[in-house]
Amino acid sequence: MRAKLVAANWKMNGSFSLLDKMLDVFKSNLRNTSCQVVICPPHVLLSSLKNAVEGTKIEVGAQNVHSELSGAFTGETSAPLLKECGVMWCIVGHSERRMIFNESDEFIRSKTATLLKNGIRPILCVGESLEQRDSGKHEESVVAQLRKILTGFNAEDQSRFVVAYEPIWAIGTGKTATPEQANTMHSIIRKELQSLGTHEVAANTQILYGGSVNVENAKALLSQSEIDGALVGGASLKKDEFYQIVAAAT
Ligand code: PGA
Predict the structure, then answer these.
(1) Mean pLDDT to the nearest integer, 232-245
(2) How many other C-beta atoms can be found within 10 angstroms of the C-beta atom of residue 60?
(3) Distance of CA 164 to the CA centre of its chain
(4) How many CA atoms lie less than 13 Å away from 166 in the CB half-sphere?
(5) Most CB atoms within 10 A, among 50, 168, 211, 227?
(6) Average of per-residue pLDDT values in the chain
(7) pTM for the full predicted model
(8) Contacts of 43 (CB under 8 A, 6+ apart)
(9) Could you give the CA distance from residue 93 to residue 116 in angstroms, rounded to a whole number?
(10) CA–CA separation, 114 vs 118, rounded Å?
(11) For 119-170, how does the pLDDT look when each residue is reduced to its tens digit (9 = 90+)?
(12) Measured between alpha carbons, how far is 26 from 16 in angstroms, rounded to an integer?
């Protein structure tokens, strides 16, 4: 049985005070959940998050990393430094980084390798554009992303991944993939993971859905057999709503 995992992607939002309020809600309510919870705030909040979640079930995630370990990369953060901040997870391949910062599959692949070498688990995002979906090319486009990024990683590496299926047309738009659309794509992703690695690893890989997940649609999405959790953007900034999404996964 794969455990459910719900991750918050705060993007360039949030504050020290939101962190405090969020943790108040979670610390008093989270004790009995079987769901893994990861919060990915902006980097400057990571150390505070690390200290605040000690002894709780919440784990610290980052939204970005550079593939190099140090050097003249103004504004970037290395994997070893993230590790010092208590980071156990890091989002890679998010469509905003691909589109706004021109990140290629090759760069995402090298970031992924760096994360794994430094003991940080990648949350690898893949997803199709609206044009690709409308023209029936959504499956091949997601499979192509997976192949370019994951080919060549060994079974042990693969066992450290989480994949997040995030259709670009559903991110921040209020449009969600139907539970059936998402479940179908998750099965395709799992099949591809099987052919890239081993059946056993693929069977245990958590595949999250992301794209306008909210308190109204969370239960229907999370009850699908192939949906093992959610990567939540906008709704993760509202403490009670994010908590209810975690509760829906439990
Ligand atoms: P959203 O963002 O929930 O606001 O659509 C999800 C994401 O970008 O990870």
Answers:
(1) 96
(2) 25
(3) 5
(4) 30
(5) 211
(6) 95
(7) 0.96
(8) 62, 63, 64, 77, 82, 85
(9) 15
(10) 6
(11) 999 999 999 999 999 999 999 999 999 999 999 999 899 999 999 999 999 9
(12) 16
Location of structure tokens 């940080």: 120
Question: Using CB atoms within 10 A of its CB, is residue 99 exposed (0-12), middle (13-18) or buried (19+)?
Answer: exposed
What atom of ligand 1 comes closest to residue 11's alpha carbon? 8
Would you say 65 and 42 are in contact if contact means Cβ atoms under 8 Å apart?
no
Confirm or reject: Cβ of 213 under 6 Å from ligand 1: yes
For atom 7 of ligand 1, which residue has the closest CA?
233
Distance between CA atoms of 74 and 57, rounded to whole angstroms?
34
Binned at pLDDT 50, 70 and 90, residue 201 comes out as very high
| φ, ψ for residue 198, nearest 5 deg | -115, 155
What are the helix (H) ranges across the chain?
16-29, 46-53, 79-84, 95-100, 105-117, 130-134, 138-150, 155-158, 179-196, 199-204, 218-222, 239-249
Which amino acid residue places its CA nearest to atom 6 of ligand 1?
A: 233
Q: For residues 39-67, give the mean pLDDT.
A: 96
Q: Do you know the residue count of the chain?
A: 250
* Residues annotated as part of the active site: 94, 166
Dihedral pair phi/psi, residue 5, rounded to 5°: -135, 130
DSSP 127: -
